[in-house]
Fold:
Amino acid sequence: MSEEKSENELAGGIGAVVGTGAGIGTSVAAISASGAVAGTSATGITSGLAAMGSLVGGGMLAGIFVAAVPVVAGGFIGYQAFKKVFGK
Structure:
């Protein structure tokens, strides 16, 4: 019983890491592509975050929270998927 629980937790943990990594990649790509200046320079990140924040009626700070959504969702989905597929 303990071994099954351990395997289930390990599968969930691996899935969370994989999903979070995918979410980070998605967020970075969205930030660098959505601004007035493309890329990951300071100007590109600033304008990208401001553009993403404007989706919810805010500025750069709101853009940080908008960019965090794929990271959190990816971690949760990865956790659930790996736990269901590889866990026992």
Q: What stands out?
A: Residues 32-88 form one domain. The mean pLDDT is 91.
